[in-house]
Amino acid sequence: MSTGKAIARDSAPLALLRQRSGYTQRQVAQRLKVSFEYLCRVERGTTGASPRVAKGLARIYNVKPERIERLNREAAVTMMQASLGRNR
Predict the structure, then answer these.
(1) Nearest CA to 45 among 88, 4, 13, 16?
(2) How far apart are CA 19 and CA 69, in angstroms?
(3) Contact of 72 with 82, CB cutoff 8 Å
(4) Lower Cβ count inside 10 Å, N or C end of the chain?
(5) How many CA atoms lie within 13 A of 47 on its CB side?
């Protein structure tokens, strides 16, 4: 259950990368053939990106897959800190 304390959608690292690349979540989800909800969870860090999705995001955003994995982990840590009330 979301507490509303999670990172803001626009400040999630993967969301920022997507926005800088000029895509909406729906466009990226459609290109990857994944649900919009799944992509939202990946961007927020509440779920890990599968290897296929990480490679696809890297291709779409023109970055290395390792960067996608790192940003996904950063979002997960931020989400965890926010849920513990440590995100300031």
Answers:
(1) 13
(2) 17
(3) no
(4) N
(5) 11
